[in-house]
Design a protein that fits this description.
The complex is a heterodimer of chains A (294) and B (392). Chain A has 294 residues and is α/β, with parallel strands linked by helices. Chain A is built from 11 helices and 10 strands. A 6-stranded mixed beta sheet of chain A has the order 6-7-8-3-9-10, sandwiched between helices. A 4-stranded antiparallel beta sheet of chain A has the order 2-1-4-5, covered by helices on one side. In chain A, helix 6 packs across helix 7. Chain B contains 15 helices and 2 strands. The chains are: A alpha/beta (294), B mainly alpha (392). Chains A and B meet through helix 3, helix 4, helix 6 and helix 7 of A and helix 9, helix 10, helix 11 and helix 12 of B.
Chain lengths: 294, 392
């Protein structure tokens, strides 16, 4: 409990549609108590983390972290190295079990669920370093994305082959369409092991979209991607956002995250330091201190 | 595309490894035929070898589902094989300390149920953990099963083994007496010793028909599941389990399904073996069998059904073929005992020059009939082969 709890100033952010302005107003109105923690008075919340704690031995990686992600936003999650961003992602997506606290997706408590069950509630995540899928072409790898495929049931392969074929044909058409939208349709029949790391990130993003998530968690989508592809990746994220997908993304590249995300949540030593617009975050003294190791 | 109507087109559609394997298989078959006609190999013995090769192919199919599809490291192939063999033997053999005299078809189901239960028992604690835990647990399992069978005499006859196992077709209308009713055939068409086809021959032929049926059914089932979304999830688990979990796949359940399916196929091989050999003993569960099957799968190409089939036959060819090498006077050493060394050398060469195996999957694995409509880009398929259309 090192950070003041955000509830203390929840009244100041009464108007959820302009949370950022409300936040700014709080800062100017009472400079003695600057806005701390995350804004937790959002209206249409897709993902909520409440007081999450996770310790690895003596190291408390996540220390009472709470935040909300509002539907239709691209929310950035930044913080210095070791701030606990990835741990938080793993807690939220079910890969780690929190020591305490809970996670809600679309209003359902998913704290103790397995990752696949959480995916079923509409939360899909990607990984920082996607592993190559051996022996598959890009479109085969993409075909793993769609949820609830009848062909994923062993029995149905023999009892309902026509239904399997129908879905497979539809899914393949979706794959070709999405690859087209991502402008990587020329990769469709390439072996998945032969494409570059940057292209792999695009493919992973495209594949995650096939799962039709309510919220998509991206773990450092721009890491290790060349500037051209990085621009393309940002465009794609913006395009998908315009189509209505909600994003939560961890990113180290400040330029990338500041140009995409709003709001931005800053994590430091396992808990939420502050939340605000990119401008607010960039000018906040505490954020600068955290990054400079102050 | 048909082999009969357009052999040239068929050949041209094959990838290089496929052409190589096909040529090798045809050449080898020709050599065997020559051996048979000249009396170098007795026909009954030859059929016994084909039965053995079919059995190894079944074992390889099983391991391929576990290792090739899903990346599960199972070192207890011999145990599941043994459970299958003992399951049916204890049910049907006249010397069985338990039941005995039960029709072999029922024995088959007893064996499959036992293997399925054992697979679940070993899978439940280990499949949630990393792949290496299953590997270690399975080594232990193999020894536990073997030692129980060796020591629990009241249950298994111990080291004496189970004798008096009937043929698989005992109790069947026509097939039971098929070998006896068939007339002896004498062939003297070619110069060389006369070949007599008696009861033994027909019995062996019946066994071969049985194993080929089993292999055929398994192959067709596996080909379908391999190309399905189900198989695709398994292949994703093999490369990156976390990615599969993040995409909403219940990986534990999939791994369990693959593990049980593979184990059942191995048990099937055991059932066939019991009724082929008519005797099973604890020696049949020696870890060497597991080792041979791993070699077959790696040699054929992990993840490939046809590769597993090929691997199974190659293993028997090496095991038994080395016996014949001694007949060549110009080879200065006794070759037969060098069998294991030979296999080791083959594996080393394979890992050095072709780590993916002889015949890895050659084409995209998308449900049959779906991809043919899609624009195919032959120049860019998997591993430089053709996209779309295909087997395996």
């Amino acid at each position: 409990m090192t950070e003041p709890q955000p509830d203390s100033e929840s009244e100041s952010a009464g108007d959820p549609t302009s949370a950022a302005t409300a936040g700014a107003a709080t800062q100017t109105a009472s400079p003695a108590s600057p806005r701390s923690g995350a804004d937790r008075s959002k209206e249409d919340v897709v993902l909520e983390a409440h007081d999450l704690v996770k310790a690895f031995g003596a190291l408390v990686a996540t220390d009472h972290a709470s935040f909300q992600v509002e539907r239709g936003t691209i929310t950035g999650l930044i913080g210095p190295n070791g701030a606990g961003k990835s741990t938080l992602f793993n807690l939220v997506s079910g890969f780690y079990e929190p020591d305490s606290g809970h996670v809600e997706v679309n209003g359902t408590d998913v704290t103790d669920l397995e990752p696949y069950e959480i995916a079923d509630h509409g939360l899909i995540r990607t990984f920082q370093t996607p592993r190559k899928l051996e022996g598959m072409t890009v479109r085969e790898a993409m075909l793993v994305g769609p949820q609830r495929q009848p062909g994923e049931s062993f029995v149905k392969l023999f009892t309902a082959p026509d239904e399997v074929r129908e879905h497979e044909a539809r899914n393949l058409a979706d794959v070709e369409r999405i690859l087209g939208e991502f402008e990587i349709d020329h990769l469709a029949t390439q072996p998945a092991t032969k494409i570059s790391g940057g292209q792999m990130k695009l493919v992973e993003l495209a594949r995650a979209m096939l799962a039709e998530p309510d919220i998509l968690l991206l773990d450092e989508p721009a890491a290790g991607v060349n500037p051209t592809l990085r621009k393309k990746l940002a465009e794609q994220i913006r395009r998908l956002h315009d189509q209505g997908t909600t994003f939560l993304l961890i990113e180290h590249d400040m330029e990338f995250v500041m140009s995409l995300a709003d709001p931005v949540i800053v994590l430091d030593r396992g808990s939420v330091l502050m939340e605000g617009t990119p401008d607010e975050v960039q000018t906040d003294d505490r954020v600068i201190d955290a990054y400079l190791g102050g | 595309m048909s082999l009969v109507s357009d052999p040239k087109g068929y050949w041209a559609d094959l990838t290089r490894p496929e052409q190589g394997v096909l040529a090798f298989v045809l050449g080898f078959a020709l050599l065997l035929l020559l051996g048979l006609l000249t009396g170098g190999i007795g026909p009954s013995y030859f059929l016994f070898l084909v039965g053995l090769a079919g059995m190894y192919s079944l074992l390889s199919f099983g391991l391929n589902v576990q290792w090739g599809y899903s990346g599960l490291i199972n070192f207890s192939v011999a145990a599941f094989f043994g459970i299958g063999a003992y399951g049916t033997a204890l049910a049907s053999a006249s010397s069985s300390p338990l039941a005995g005299g039960i029709p072999p078809v029922v024995g088959l189901f007893v064996a499959l149920v036992l293997a399925g239960v054992l697979a679940l028992l070993i899978g439940i604690p280990t499949l949630r953990l990393r792949a290496d835990y299953l590997a270690i647990a399975s080594i232990g399992l193999a020894e536990v099963v073997r030692i129980i069978i060796l020591n629990e005499g009241w249950l298994t006859n111990g080291s004496a083994g189970v004798r008096g196992i009937p043929g698989f077709f005992e109790g069947w209308p026509v097939l039971e007496t098929f070998p006896e009713t068939m007339p002896g055939v004498i062939i003297t068409a070619l110069p060389g010793p006369t070949i007599v086809l008696g009861t033994n021959f027909w019995q062996a032929l019946l066994n071969v028909a049985l194993v080929l049926t089993l292999v055929g059914i398994c192959y067709l089932v596996l080909r379908r599941v391999h190309r399905s979304p189900w198989g695709r999830v398994l292949r994703t688990i093999r490369s990156d389990e976390d990615a599969a979990r993040a995409l909403g796949k219940n990986t534990y359940s999939y791994k369990m399904q693959a593990f049980v399916l593979g184990s059942l196929i191995m048990a099937l091989a055991g059932v066939f073996y019991a009724h082929l050999n008519l005797y099973v003993g604890p020696g049949d569960l020696n870890p060497i069998t597991t080792f041979y099957v791993w070699v077959a799968v790696i040699l054929g190409g992990s993840g490939s059904n046809r590769g597993a089939l090929f691997g199974g036959f190659v293993i028997v060819a090496i095991q038994q073929g080395t016996r014949f090498l001694n007949e060549f006077g110009w080879i200065p050493v006794d070759v037969a005992p060098l069998r294991l060394l030979l296999i080791g050398v083959i594996i080393v060469l394979l890992m050095r020059f072709r780590p993916q195996g002889v015949l890895p999957p050659q084409r995209e694995l998308i449900w049959r009939g779906v991809v043919d409509d899609a624009p195919s880009q032959p120049e860019r398929g998997v591993r430089g082969s053709k996209a779309g259309e295909s087997d395996d």
